[in-house]
Design brief:
The chain is mainly alpha-helical and 100 residues long. The protein has 4 helices and 2 strands; from the N terminus they run αβαβαα.
Amino acid sequence: MTKEPSAYADARTQPHVTVALRMRQKGLSASSGDTIPYVICQQSSDPIEKSSNSTTLADFAYHPDEVRKDSILRLDVSWYLQTQLHPPIARLCEHIEGTD
């Protein structure tokens, strides 16, 4: 993080900031200069987040420790395949004759 989590005006659109703010709510440390790990999950365990119509990626970002502790949270494997694996593999293979 380049600044304090509360200083981000667009926190709701940045996954690492959303996770940092949630960490602070739980009394954990999250400050400027920290690297905030996160993973993208399929659903939220927070009833307020479940009922909202928000669709930003940050709404599905959780600290890995939250996922380990919460049996409801599941990694969004489909999202990782579609956005993190398929595009670079497609770029690598596009020059190979016979692939599509």
